[in-house]
Structure formats: C-alpha cells, structure tokens
Design a protein that fits this description.
The protein has about 625 residues and is an alpha+beta fold. The chain is about 50% helix and about 20% strand. The chain contains 20 helices and 22 strands. It has a seven-stranded mixed β-sheet with strand order 10-22-21-20-11-18-19, with helices on both faces. A six-stranded antiparallel β-sheet has the order 2-1-3-9-4-7, with no helix packed on it. Strand 16 and strand 17 form a beta hairpin. The protein is elongated. It starts with 6 loop residues before the first helix and ends in a 9-residue tail after the last helix.
Length: about 625
C-alpha cells in the first residue's frame, strides 16, 4: 500500500526524523557522562533544547498567536505549558518526547484527514473538463460551462458526459459507477436521457443539451458533497461545545493540583507541578475533536461510493435512529411502468387475445395501450384495421380483419350488453369482445421491482420495527403489493395531501427518540419527503425535485440501497460512540492516576497521542462499509 504525503506533511516528517536523531544523540551523550560536571547541566539543556525547538517550534508559535488573538485553551497551549514545565523541572527527555510524539500524532491525523478527503475527491471526480460541439461543419472543443440548452454535442468513447441531455443519434453504454455505485453499464439509445458525470464506454453519441452546466447533475452533486460538512450532527456540535468548556476546566484543575496539595500537606511543589503537567498532557481533547468529525466525514464518503448522497452528518445521525420506514409505492417499490401481467382468454389462445387487443389499441397513446402493444411485441397491421373509434373513459371499438372488436373497461362491455368476468384482480382489467361475444380479459399492473422484497427483508434484519406503504392506487392493488413484499401496513387511495396527513399521524405515534424515514421518487412526493424526520429520494437520477426535497438521495432505483444507507449510518454512529467512550475512559483513568502520581509523562503521551491515533484509525473504517 502506497503512502502519499503532501508537501507540508513531508516537511513535518523530515523535522520529526531530524529531531529524533538529535534526541537519541542527546540521550546517548547524557548517559555516557562524557560532559564535564561543571558544564553538564547547561550542555544537557542545550542538547535537548535543539530537538525540542526543531519539533515543537511551530506548536509554541501557534500557541503564542492564539493567546494574542484570545484563543488560549487549545491543544497547542496545553502541549506548550506541559513541555515548558517539564524543561523547567529539568525533565528534558520527557519534555522532548511529549512534543515529539505529539507531532507524530499530528502528522498521522493530517494524513488520515487528507486520505479521507482524497477518497471523497476520487469518488466525486466526475467533473468533466471539456465538451465537443459541432459548429460550421467541424467539431470544436469547448468548456462545459459554455454550452447552451439545445446545443448538440458529441460524446466520444472514454469521455465523461459534460452536461445533462437527450441522445438524438448513436447508441452506447454508460458507466454510471461514480454516480450510482452500480458497476454494470447502462445501455442508451436515441431518446434516452443521459446525465453529466457518466463515462461513455463504446459508441459515439450525439446529445441535445437539456441543462446548462451550472444546473446539471454533476454540479448539483458536487455542491451537495461540498456542503455536507456544514450540516453537523448533534454529536459533533456536542463535542465542539464540550471541548470549549472541558479544556479551561482541566487547566484550572491542573493549576489547583500544582498549588493546593503542597500548601495543605507541606509537600514539595516540584512533585505536584510534575503531576499537574502530566495532567495537562492527558487532558488534550484532540482525540475527540479530530476523530468524531472524521467519522461522519468518512461515513458520508463511504455512502457516496455506493451512490448514496447524504446532505450532512445530522441526517446520517437521524437515519441511524430510524425504526419506521414509510414508502411511496409507484416508482419506489414498483417500476412505475405498466405491463401485462395476466391473460385470461375465452375460447381462444392467449396469443390471439393479445393480438386482438394490441390491434384495437394501435392508434392510442394511453399508457395502458402502450403496455398492451409492448406485450404483443410485433408490428400491428394497420391495413387490416378500420372503423377505429375511441370512447373516453371506456375504451376502443374497431374492425380488424372483418371482425368487430371492443377493448376497454367494464363500462364499455356493459354499454354493449356483454356479460363479463366480475372477479376482482390486483390491477387494471381490460376486457375484450369479439363480434359481440366475450373473448376474455387482460390484467395491466405496475410490476414490483426485483430487489424490493429483499430490501424489506434487509431493513427488518437491521432492526426496522415497522414498514408502511402509502399509495394512491386501489386497496386491492395496494394489498397485493404489501403482501408480496411483506410490508406491515399500507394506506391506499390517497391524494398527495392525504399522504402528508398519514405520515404526520405515524410520526406523532412514534417514540420521540426514534425517527421515521419516508422513501419516495422525489418528484410527486416532495411534500411528504420534506415532512419526514429523514426524507429519502430514490430512483431519481438527475431529478431536481429529489435533490432539493430530500435529506438523502439514492442515485439509482435500487430499493436495497435504503438498507445499505441505514447500515452505513449505524456503523458510523457505532464508531462515533466507540471513540467517545474509549477516549473519555482512558483519559479519565490516566487523569486520576496522574493526580495521585501513578502516571508519568509517558503514560500521558499514550493517553493523548496513542488514544488519538487509535480513534482516528477506528474512524477511518467508516470509509469502507460493505454491502451485506
């Protein structure tokens, strides 16, 4: 594994190495007693002062600047006071060692934070740097922000899609991994939308621009990631507030430890000053101040790698507390596309029933008509079709190959005096008559997404206590989907405002310490998404409504990503709690030991630098959450 350091980190590493060499030399010289006795004290002081200033000069400088600007109580101040005090007591090796290990910890912290930032930068390295546009018969290279709506651009194999648009010519495959986390490429053909940030893998595409660069998906996503750190979780805000009060308290406690016991018990000041200095080193809160934000930062980065955009640590924290998940049905749990799911012919084959229905619907553009023609899958023979008449709200009458057809709902059949099958099916029933006799019916349904059932099972495995589905569909259709997916509760035949009311009732019944998440397609469900404790938009690749309304955006239409988002949030919060408990417990233990003289500067170094390094390593685990 290669370790990449920036210029500042390399300079810091060189200082640490040089100071370490001089420090080792000073220890050896002091141990060999080669310096004349009359110069021994001065020589030792100078020998240790050189590595101390080399490795700690910038800490002393920062502490001084902060004091001048009124920012006294920070880790620079604590390290400066503790190490200067150690030198004043003649404990030169301890003073140098504390500063040396502190700087090693700082270098490690800097590397860890930069690694996290690089990981997110690599994940979000989707910003295209050029676009090809056809002008005056030639292809010209321009910056993406120079493109206008309705421009026609050329996207070559290997290039990133610079702006959102519609394919007007050409076919290819797009790699959407940096946006959706999905490794499989997506086929695109004329008429299909393409979004910025994807990589064109094979054919040349001619694309008509539908959004300028500043409004395109890639720009919106980058803004989301950049602004995510500004929305801090309650835990982050608590740690910031905690350290603001904690540091001055421990400084006052250290001062009291250095002064009060010698006065009360007539003991030497040097012993208690040493304990107070050790107390100061231990009390440095950098393990919490660095590792907690890093945990949330890593969680957001790990989610981004899987195509899950979290707008801030506060939403990650809220999602971890979620135990009720409410779903919209159409486009979220179902595909949002009608298809023929059942064929029930009478005195003819299924193929014949489908052929008659498809030809009768030949001239209709209604979604149900389109689904019937798609199911037929063959060209309709318009030359064999005459006398076509569409009756609004009923269906279609037509003549096909000399046979009189009627295709529509039960109202159409009753108007023709034809008896039909009255059985109730979960879907839309389309009846067919042939020459005045009932020929059977088709069921048109919105099919359930392949991963929807697994998504519900995984949510329950993660401890989600209740799943609820809201839909405007009929109770029969809702009950069928809920039963198929194992959803605990459903509410059907709802208008958009009804969905908000139902969600509010669910939230009001909820334990205040637990949260309710709503998952919708982000377009029609914006009011409900906004009302939920955690609003999640899914299957909304490039949707402005989704990005604006939701707290978390899933960049593809896979319902399983909801469980993964919950898994990432809970792992992040688990790591945050581990770091808080570990850091405070170790620090409290060593603080007590230091107060009673049972811990020296070396113990203090572990309680500060050692705990910080362990906490940072633990925090970095949030960058890599594997989908179970």
């Amino acid at each position: 594994m290669s370790i990449i350091l920036n210029k500042k980190q390399k300079k810091s590493l060189c200082r640490i190495i040089l100071a370490s060499v001089i420090f080792i030399f000073a220890v050896l010289i002091s141990g060999l007693s080669v310096i004349p006795a009359e110069y021994s004290a001065y020589a030792r002081f100078i020998l240790y002062l050189i590595p101390y200033l080399l490795v700690g000069g910038d800490v002393l400088l920062r502490a001084t600047k902060n004091i001048i600007h009124g920012k006294v109580f920070d880790e620079n101040f604590l390290m400066s006071i503790a190490t200067i005090g150690a030198f004043a007591l003649g404990e030169y090796p301890e003073g140098v060692a504390v500063m040396l290990f502190y700087q090693v910890g700082e270098l490690f912290q800097s590397y860890a934070v930069n690694k996290s930032r690089r990981s997110i930068a690599e994940l979000m390295d989707i910003n295209p740097d050029h676009a090809y546009i056809e002008r005056d018969g030639s292809v010209v290279t321009v910056s993406p922000d120079e493109l206008s709506v309705d421009d026609v651009i050329l996207i070559k194999p290997g290039d990133r899609v610079p702006v959102d648009g519609i394919v007007i010519r050409g076919s290819s495959e797009l790699n959407t991994a940096s946006l959706t986390g999905e490794s499989l490429p997506r086929d695109v053909n004329p008429g299909d939308p393409v979004i910025s940030g994807c990589i064109n893998l094979s054919g040349v595409l001619h694309v008509r621009v539908t959004k300028i660069f500043s409004e395109s998906t890639v720009t919106r996503i980058l803004e989301l990631v950049e602004n995510a750190s500004s929305r801090k979780a309650k835990t982050e805000n608590f740690i910031t507030t905690f350290s603001r009060y904690y540091t001055p308290v421990v400084v006052i406690a250290a001062a009291a430890l250095a002064i009060i016991p010698p006065l009360l018990f007539a003991q030497p000041f040097s012993m208690w000053v040493e304990r107070a200095l050790t107390f100061l080193v231990v009390s440095c809160p950098c393990a919490l101040v660095i590792s907690i934000p890093l945990s949330f930062f890593g969680g957001i980065g790990g989610a981004s790698a899987s195509g899950i955009l979290v707008k801030g640590g506060n939403y990650l924290e809220a999602l971890a507390k979620t135990d009720t998940v409410v779903f919209d049905k159409t486009g979220t749990l179902t595909c949002g596309k009608f298809s023929v799911t059942e064929l029930h012919p009478v005195k003819m084959s299924e193929d014949q029933l489908l052929e008659y229905a498809a030809h009768a619907e030949a001239y209709s553009s209604h979604p149900i008509s389109i689904s019937i023609k798609d199911a037929y899958g063959k060209p309709v023979r318009n030359e064999a079709l005459t006398d076509v008449s569409e009756i609004a709200g009923h269906g279609v009458n037509a003549t096909f190959n000399g046979h009189r057809l009627a295709v529509g709902n039960s109202k159409l059949m009753r108007s023709l005096g034809i008896s039909i099958d009255d059985s109730v099916r979960p879907g839309t029933m389309i009846h067919v008559s042939l020459d005045g006799s009932y020929a059977g019916y088709l069921v048109i349904s919105d099919t359930v997404k392949p991963d929807a059932k697994d998504a519900i099972l995984r949510l329950k495995a993660l401890g989600v206590k209740k799943t609820v589905m809201l839909t405007g569909d009929s109770s029969v259709a809702a009950a069928s989907v809920a039963k198929e997916l194992g959803i605990d509760q459903y509410h059907a035949e709802l208008l958009p405002q009804d969905k908000v009311s139902v969600l509010e009732d669910i939230i009001n019944q909820q334990n205040k310490n637990r949260k309710v998440a709503f998952v919708g397609d982000g377009i029609n469900d914006a009011p409900v998404i906004s009302r939920a404790d955690v609003g999640i938009a899914m299957g909304s690749l490039g949707s402005d409504a989704a990005i604006e309304a939701a707290d978390i955006v899933l960049m593809d239409d896979n319902p399983a990503k909801i469980a993964l988002a919950l898994q990432i949030s809970r792992k992040t919060m688990g790591i945050v709690k581990q770091n808080i408990i570990f850091a405070l417990d170790v620090k409290f233990l060593v603080l007590v030991l230091a107060a009673f003289g049972l811990a020296n500067m070396w113990g203090a170094v572990f309680a500060d630098v050692g705990v910080a390094v362990i906490a940072i390593l633990n925090a970095m685990r949030t960058l890599n959450v594997k989908d179970k």
